[in-house]
């Protein structure tokens, strides 16, 4: 099944302790698509300026990303300049130049409107809402956001929460949006505003998924070296949504598997600048990393501490119940 993504298509200038990349291709929609296309067909909607190196998008097209919805407008492409110091968990934004994104109005091509899975990647929440007016009965809608929009478009963002099934955001953004310090409180606060599931990404400390009656945690894959964290969150979302679209299963158990696949894709994204590593991936590499995650957390129950208690089980039984609400 197809995944539709609408988000930023950027030129990124990034500084990390390990190097510097100047005006490389990036943006939330690009990172998302680079991960999701390994698992399912992707339809991308966004805008670039006349300075965009369109030829560098050819590898995405070859991997099944339909770029019919990518407009090229007169003006500068969206440009983000960020820096990571030794704490690779948080990006410092040095400059955000919206360029053609400032006047963009998403137009979903008719052939994209029936996409069963929709991801509203990090972009102006007003545009995310406009996309929802144009799609027809998706099975699952997820969205992401960031500090820039939480401070400038809070009301629109809160309106959006009432219309999505899944929200993904990082821990700093969750705290900023909810004004809660505990992530458990933040998760509940966000669930009360609409989504059935909220996924809080914690960089090298993994990801927490909150459901109405459940909590699930996956660690991040312990990499020897993280080169550039840019795009990890979007690659996570690409893996998560791509896996759901590939399997078509919205049970709680499968959502948990999707969080593991998302974590695997996020871990690949940070191994190189831009979307280089994601585009060089093979499915066997993805399978091996997913197996690595299983191994990382596998533990048997061991004997009970109190005599007479039944032994702890390895994995609790999860109710197999669909997550998507009827809109
Ligand atoms: P992340 O997955 O959170 O690391 O996302 C990184 C991507 O977000 C970069 O490629 C940026 O181009 C993009 N980005 C940065 N600021 C914004 C913004 N205000 N709106 C949309 N996309 C952004």
Plain-language structure description:
The protein is α/β, with parallel strands linked by helices. Helix content is 33%, strand content 22%. It has eleven helices and 13 strands. The strands form two sheets. A nine-stranded mixed beta sheet has the order 5-4-1-8-9-10-11-12-13, sandwiched between helices. Strands 3-2-6-7 form a four-stranded mixed beta sheet. Helix 2 (58-62) links the parallel strand 4 (42-48) and strand 5. Helix 1 packs across helix 8. The radius of gyration is 19 Å and the shape is globular. The two termini are 20 Å apart. The chain binds adenosine monophosphate. Adenosine monophosphate (AMP) is lined by residues 8, 10, 12, 26-28, 31, 80, 96, 122-123, 146, 148, 230-234.
Topology, pairings included?
Layout: E1 3-6, E2 10-16, E3 19-26, H1 28-36, E4 42-48, H2 58-62, E5 65-72, E6 78-83, E7 92-97, E8 117-120, H3 125-134, E9 140-144, H4 147-152, H5 154-161, E10 166-170, H6 171-178, H7 183-192, E11 197-201, E12 207-210, E13 215-218, H8 232-247, H9 252-269, H10 276-279, H11 283-297
Parallel strand pairs: 1-4, 1-8, 2-6, 4-5, 8-9, 9-10, 10-11
Antiparallel strand pairs: 2-3, 6-7, 11-12, 12-13
């Amino acid at each position: 099944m197809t995944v539709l993504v609408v988000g930023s298509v950027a030129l990124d200038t990034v500084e990390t302790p390990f190097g510097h990349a100047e005006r490389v291709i990036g943006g939330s929609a690009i990172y998302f698509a680079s991960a999701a296309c390994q698992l399912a067909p992707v339809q991308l909607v966004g805008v670039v300026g006349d300075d965009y190196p369109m030829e560098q998008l050819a590898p995405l097209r070859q991997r099944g990303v339909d770029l019919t919805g990518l407009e090229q407008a007169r003006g500068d492409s969206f440009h983000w300049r960020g820096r990571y110091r030794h704490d690779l968990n948080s990006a410092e934004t040095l400059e955000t130049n919206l360029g053609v994104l400032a006047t963009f109005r998403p137009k979903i091509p008719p052939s994209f409107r029936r996409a069963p899975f929709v991801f509203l990647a990090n972009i102006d929440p007003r545009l995310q809402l406009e996309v929802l007016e144009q799609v027809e009965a998706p099975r699952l809608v997820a969205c992401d956001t960031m500090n820039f929009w939480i401070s400038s478009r809070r009301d629109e963002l809160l309106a959006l929460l009432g219309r999505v099934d899944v929200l993904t955001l990082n821990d700093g953004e969750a705290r900023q949006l909810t004004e809660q310090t505990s992530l458990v409180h933040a998760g509940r606060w966000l669930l009360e505003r609409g989504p059935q599931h909220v996924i809080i990404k914690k960089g090298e400390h993994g990801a927490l998924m909150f459901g109405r009656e459940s909590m699930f945690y996956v660690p991040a894959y312990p990499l020897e070296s993280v080169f550039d964290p840019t795009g990890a969150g979007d690659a996570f979302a690409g893996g998560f949504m791509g896996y759901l679209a590939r399997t078509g299963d919205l049970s709680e158990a499968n959502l948990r598997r999707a969080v593991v696949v998302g974590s695997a894709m996020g871990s690949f994204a940070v191994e190189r600048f831009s979307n280089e590593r994601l585009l060089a991936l093979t499915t066997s590499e993805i399978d091996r990393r997913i197996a690595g995650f299983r191994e990382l957390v596998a533990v048997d129950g061991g004997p009970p501490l109190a005599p007479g208690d039944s032994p702890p089980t390895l994995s609790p039984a999860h109710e197999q119940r669909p997550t998507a609400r009827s809109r």
